[in-house]
Structure formats: C-alpha cells, structure tokens
C-alpha cells in the first residue's frame, strides 16, 4: 500500500502580514488586507489539500483591551475576507497571554505566544499537518522563530515592521520577500515542483 503524501499547510501571521497593522483592533470594519494579501489569498486558495491557518499573538486580551469573546468576531471576519478572494480559512489560532498582562487570567508565560511554537504544534495535531512540509509566513522575526522551532520552512515578509533584528540561527528566515503575494508565489512554485525554490535569504 502506498503511503499518503505528507500534508502541508501555510501558517499566516495576522497583523502586519495578512492585515494592515492596526494595534489592538477587533473591529471588522477596520480590518484591511495588507498590500499583496488579496493576490496572495487567491494564489494560496488554489493549492491542493493545503490548510490555510492564521496564528496570531493577541496580547490585547491579557492587557484588558478587549475580551477573548471578540476573537469569534475576528475569526468570522477573516473567513469572509478569505472567501472573497477564493480561499478558505481552515482555522484561526490566537494566544491571549502576556507575562505583563493586567488581567490575571492571562498574565503568564505560555507555550503558545510566538516566538514559541505552541499554536503551530496544536494546529498541526488538530489538522493532520506534517510540520516538516509546512510554511510559516510573518512580518517579524518572532514569526520566523516560531516557524523554525516548529520545523517549518519560514518566509519573512520584509515590509519594515521588524525593527530590532536580533538575529540568531532560529531567527533567520529561509526566504525573505517584500510582499505577501511574493511569498504565496514562492510557496505555490514549491508545491508544484516538490522542491525548494532557490530564493533563500542570505
């Protein structure tokens, strides 16, 4: 019997990568796709058997800026944005914690807050994803580190949102692009060829 092929996935950071970065925003009316994101969703939505999963730190919950219940509204808005561009949101994972939070229920160190890989590992377990064949795409090096720790191939959307550049082996992206649609084309090319594209970051 032939073994089933390993299941890939694309993990997307939300704020600053998929959406314009509006701090502590949970209002769907202010959720705007980042440059290149509409095209990226169209490209990623055409991939075969590849879950599209959003993973996002939401420290506003720990800081009392909005309730955890607001994440249901955000998830629904994301589903509509994906569908409008021919893609399907498989799942939305968020971390509500922050060690300096003002809400004691969420003020703690956790395993899910990026740069730790907890959200990716949970998503992989729940959706049958082989992380060795998955991608993590984000706009800062915490996203890269979370992806590397999980065993994913990482893509940094180098759009100016990373300002500290504390580079370590875990924080060096496999690839670097300037827009999300460039990342989507890279992933699509890899999926079609079954081999990495030679655009590795230095």
Q: Order of helices and strands, N to C?
A: EHEHHEHEHEEH
Count of spatially separate domains: 1
For the record, the CATH class is: Alpha Beta
Low-confidence stretches: 195-202
Q: What helical percentage do the residues reach? A: 25-40%
CATH superfamily: HAD superfamily/HAD-like
Q: What does the oligomeric state look like here?
A: single chain
CATH topology: Rossmann fold
Taken as a percent bin, the fraction of beta residues is 5-15%
Strands ordered across the widest β-sheet: 3-2-1-4-5-6
Q: Give the CA-based shape.
A: globular
CATH hierarchy: architecture: 3-Layer(aba) Sandwich
Annotation field: number of helices:
6
Task: Determine the structural class based on helices, strands and strand pairing.
Answer: alpha/beta
Mean pLDDT: 93
How many E strands? 6
Radius of gyration (CA) equals 16 Å
Largest sheet: 6 strands, parallel
Beginning-to-end CA distance, first to last residue: 41 Å
Topology:
Layout: E1 10-12, H1 37-45, E2 52-57, H2 59-62, H3 70-84, E3 91-95, H4 118-127, E4 135-138, H5 141-150, E5 153-157, E6 175-177, H6 180-193
Would you mind describing this structure in some detail?
With 202 residues, this protein is an alpha/beta fold. The protein has one domain: 3-Layer(aba) Sandwich (Rossmann fold), CATH 3.40.50.1000. It has helices at 37-45, 59-62, 70-84, 118-127, 141-150, 180-193, and strands spanning 10-12, 52-57, 91-95, 135-138, 153-157, 175-177. It has a six-stranded parallel sheet, with helices on both faces.
């Amino acid at each position: 019997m032939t073994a089933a092929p390993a299941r890939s996935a694309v993990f997307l950071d939300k704020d600053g990568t998929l959406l314009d970065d509006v701090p502590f925003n949970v209002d769907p009316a202010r959720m705007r796709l980042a440059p290149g994101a509409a095209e990226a969703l169209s490209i990623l939505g055409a991939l075969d058997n590849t879950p599209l999963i959003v993973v996002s730190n939401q420290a506003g919950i720990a800081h009392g800026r909005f309730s955890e219940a607001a994440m249901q509204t955000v998830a629904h808005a994301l589903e509509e944005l994906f569908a409008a561009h021919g893609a399907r949101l498989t799942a939305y994972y968020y971390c509500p914690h922050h060690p300096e939070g003002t809400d004691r229920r969420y003020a703690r160190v956790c395993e899910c807050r990026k740069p730790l890989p907890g959200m990716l590992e949970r998503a992989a377990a729940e959706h049958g994803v082989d992380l060795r064949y998955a991608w993590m795409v984000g706009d800062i090096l915490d996203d890269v580190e979370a992806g590397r720790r999980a065993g994913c191939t990482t893509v940094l959307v180098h759009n100016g949102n990373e300002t500290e550049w504390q580079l370590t082996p875990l924080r060096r992206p496999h690839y670097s692009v300037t827009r999300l649609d460039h990342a989507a084309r890279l992933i699509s090319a890899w999926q079609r060829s079954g081999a990495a594209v030679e655009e590795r970051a230095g």
